[in-house]
């Protein structure tokens, strides 16, 4: 027995040292590397399983699959991308700098699009259901959260009806976000002919404990001609039907034009990871009469070689000259984004950040108060939305550029989740975003520096402690 315990201790410490070397080579910051190395060597019995569950910096399985995709699916892309040539935006025709956005997106910005702002759940689901009803060939569906409640059942009926009438329907969900979804819901879809798959972040023995990576994207594409993305999932709370959240404030986006194919490509890649199947889809851009908007679709996630979401947000902030308005339900940005917001305020930009008054994730909510006092001292204005829960993810730069998507301003969205953002450098669209956010700020209260400084000491300590956990929240 003593010999067995000795061997177990030896193996644990060897595993701790080996994992510490991996943490040294892969941690994003020196502080994170030091913390992991000390913990892994000192307490390997506890730290090793925690690291392999929560500490891995990149989704290595998806990286490998992406490499396979680049060879297996290259012929499809080679046929599709030339079709886009006449729709690619020219830098001189677009407000703002687009080269960095295209590099981050790994696909070009396109012109000839129509972007329609969908405010709150009623408008969003009306638009989604109308689009699904008009499907002729295929429907691609991807959500982080799907519930078997009133709107979830209505959504299921729509998909089943179309599948039974010959439309190819593909349904991809995140197994962590949709963990409460009953098996019967999925079986009903499958029996009707819908192709159903979980995202499978822990697929394969090497990734069995990789539960900290999640697919947070919300994508619907119909026939390659109409697409939707934004903040809303499929659940009753997104329609304000859950009392504890109150009226739910969210924003979604309907797209028509060549940008829909970029949204489709993001889904296509995720489906290939989840199932290994190559979907036969339409890849010919649709000409939309009188549509002139430029749009870039920027997928991001832990398989990227760079921190795409954080860099995209910083790029937008650095481009602001007069106005920078941001809304995010979870506001715990990395130091790069914090510094960019502070610099914008210092150079005279009207920097406003809108966050919820009431939280739905307490740790994330408390973490923000660790750094908000300093941001307010430097001129960043913080507002808290009053009527109900705020969930939209929107950014407005001056009067010309907007971003709508799934990215929250926190570490999880920047580094652990698969996300997607629509980058729209268009003055007409920006004017509609401005009007929407102006109403939101009118329904909010500004947080004062005095309010934060007068908090009890214990609340300040809790905020600092929870902020230390922000890398895995």
Automatic annotation (TrEMBL):
Catalytic reaction equation(s): 2 a 1,2-diacyl-sn-glycero-3-phospho-(1'-sn-glycerol) = a cardiolipin + glycerol
A family per Pfam: PLDc_2
Alphabetical UniProt keywords: Cell membrane, Lipid biosynthesis, Lipid metabolism, Membrane, Phospholipid biosynthesis, Phospholipid metabolism, Repeat, Transferase, Transmembrane, Transmembrane helix
Membrane topology classification: Multi-pass membrane protein
EC number: 2.7.8.-
Superkingdom of origin organism: Bacteria
Residues spanning the membrane: 33-54
All copies of domain PLD phosphodiesterase, residue ranges: 211-238, 386-413
Residues forming the catalytic site: 216, 218, 223, 391, 393, 398
InterPro entries hit by this protein: Cardiolipin_synthase, CL_synthase_A, PLD-like_dom, PLipase_D/transphosphatidylase
PROSITE patterns: PLD
Localization of this protein: Cell membrane
Function per UniProt: Catalyzes the reversible phosphatidyl group transfer from one phosphatidylglycerol molecule to another to form cardiolipin (CL) (diphosphatidylglycerol) and glycerol.
PANTHER family: CARDIOLIPIN SYNTHASE (PTHR21248), PHOSPHOLIPASE D (PTHR21248:SF22)
Protein's name in the database: Cardiolipin synthase A
Natural source organism: Salinicola lusitanus
Gene this protein is translated from: cls
């Amino acid at each position: 027995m003593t010999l067995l315990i000795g061997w177990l201790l030896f193996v644990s410490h060897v595993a701790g040292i080996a994992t510490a070397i991996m943490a040294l080579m892969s941690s994003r910051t020196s502080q994170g590397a030091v913390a992991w190395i000390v913990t892994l060597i000192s307490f390997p019995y506890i730290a090793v399983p925690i690291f392999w569950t929560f500490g891995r910096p990149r989704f290595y399985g998806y990286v490998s699959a992406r490499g396979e995709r680049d060879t297996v699916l290259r012929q499809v892309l080679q046929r599709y991308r030339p079709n886009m040539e006449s729709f690619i935006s020219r830098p001189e025709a677009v407000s703002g700098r687009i080269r960095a956005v295209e590099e981050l997106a790994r696909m070009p910005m396109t012109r000839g699009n129509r972007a329609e702002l969908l405010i709150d759940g009623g408008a969003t689901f009306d638009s989604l259901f109308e689009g699904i009803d008009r499907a002729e060939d295929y429907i691609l569906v991807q959500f982080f959260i799907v519930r078997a409640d009133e709107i979830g059942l209505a959504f299921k009926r729509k998909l089943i009806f179309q599948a039974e009438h010959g439309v190819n329907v593909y349904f991809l969900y995140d197994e962590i976000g949709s963990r409460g979804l009953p098996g019967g819901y999925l079986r009903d879809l499958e029996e009707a002919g819908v192709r159903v798959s979980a995202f499978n972040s822990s697929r394969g023995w090497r990734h069995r404990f990789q539960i900290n990576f999640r697919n947070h994207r919300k994508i619907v594409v119909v026939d390659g001609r109409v697409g939707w993305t934004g903040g809303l999932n499929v659940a009753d709370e997104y329609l304000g039907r859950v009392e504890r959240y109150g009226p739910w404030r969210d924003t979604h986006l309907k797209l028509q034009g060549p940008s829909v194919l970029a949204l489709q490509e993001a889904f296509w890649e995720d489906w290939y990871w989840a199932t290994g199947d190559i979907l036969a889809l339409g890849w010919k851009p649709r000409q939309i009469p009188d549509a002139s908007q430029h749009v870039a679709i920027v997928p991001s996630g832990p398989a990227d070689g760079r921190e795409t979401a954080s860099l995209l947000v910083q790029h937008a902030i650095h481009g602001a000259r007069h106005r920078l308005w941001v809304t995010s339900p979870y506001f715990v940005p990395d130091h790069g984004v914090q510094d960019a917001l502070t610099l914008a305020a210092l150079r005279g930009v009207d920097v406003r950040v809108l966050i919820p008054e009431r939280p739905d994730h307490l740790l994330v909510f408390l973490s923000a108060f660790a750094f908000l006092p300093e941001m307010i001292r430097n001129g960043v204005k913080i507002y808290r939305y009053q009527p109900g829960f705020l969930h939209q993810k929107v950014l407005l730069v001056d009067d010309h550029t907007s971003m709508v998507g799934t990215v929250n301003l926190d570490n999880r969205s920047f580094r652990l989740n698969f996300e997607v953002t629509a980058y729209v450098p268009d003055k007409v669209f920006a004017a509609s975003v401005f009007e929407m956010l102006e109403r939101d700020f009118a329904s909010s209260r500004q947080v004062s520096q005095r309010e934060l400084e007068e908090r009890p000491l214990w609340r300040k300590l809790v905020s600092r402690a929870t902020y230390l956990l922000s890398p895995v929240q």
